[in-house]
Design a protein that fits this description.
The protein is mainly alpha-helical. The chain has helices spanning 30-46, 53-67, 75-94, 100-112, 119-135, 139-162, 168-194, 201-211, 218-229. It folds into 2 domains: 37-43 and 52-165, no CATH class; 169-235. The longest helix has 27 residues, at 168-194.
């Protein structure tokens, strides 16, 4: 029987920052990374064995959760996806200080103040933890986070089916309002703990802008500080 030559298919490996590459390895370009991720997503749709914590996390935040609030065929669907990714998942993934412990503290603080944490935030958080763990070559841990994310995603889906709930327009409005609320509260907290009360609103805005805790403009920050100086609160 004639022998066969079999080509070894290159394998993508995630390495920790600073970890040396092995012989024959090279870092993928951004274009190659995006192409590889796209291929992984396509393979994972029809092949369970191709699923990874990353493909599952992306599917949850870009399809499963948005589908609970808007039909994928509707124009609003893309807007819902962008808000979930840009306002929840993206910042959580980028913020290395946002850990599972930080999430637990956030939930506890929310409970003490008698308001709830949005379940969409919870799903996004566990997806971010999963991707981060996978990048650190801890696939077993990553899958545990995906399990938590899928559980809470299921809660959202069931809740939506049992009640009319808000439509996509209302959801987007609520998400935008929640994001603005967090920025107002962050500015108030920083002003109360780090800014000299004798400083004018303009100078206080200078310091808050340098602290990089908000996306608001200098003018907007100064307006908020002026309101705080008058005794108003945003908490």
């Amino acid at each position: 029987m004639a022998s066969k030559q079999i080509a070894r298919v290159p394998k993508i490996r995630f390495v920790r920052q600073g970890e040396p590459l092995r012989n024959g390895e090279r870092e993928l370009t951004e274009k190659e990374s995006l192409s590889e991720l796209k291929q992984q997503m396509e393979r994972s749709i029809g092949d369970r064995s191709a699923r990874t914590p990353i493909t599952e996390a992306i599917h949850l935040v870009s399809f499963t959760i948005p589908k609970a609030f808007a039909d994928p065929k509707e124009p609003k669907f893309r807007e819902v996806v962008e808000h979930i990714v840009n306002d929840y998942y993206g910042p959580m993934l980028a913020d290395k200080s946002f850990t599972e412990t930080a999430l637990d503290e956030f939930i506890g603080d929310a409970f003490d103040k008698r308001y709830h944490i949005d379940l969409v935030e919870k799903v996004a958080a566990y997806c971010a933890f999963a991707v981060r763990a996978f990048w650190e070559n801890n696939e077993r841990l990553a899958w545990t986070y995906i399990e938590d994310a899928q559980y809470w995603a299921g809660v959202i889906m069931v809740s939506k089916r049992r009640s009319a709930g808000p439509g996509p327009a209302t959801l987007l409005a609520n998400m935008k309002a929640a994001k603005l609320k967090k920025e107002y509260v962050a500015i108030e907290k920083y002003w109360l703990t780090n800014i000299d009360r004798k400083l004018s609103a303009q100078k206080a805005a200078d310091e808050i802008l340098l602290a990089d805790i908000t996306t608001f403009s200098h003018k907007k920050i100064a307006e908020i500080v002026s309101a705080l100086r008058r005794g108003e609160t945003f908490r």
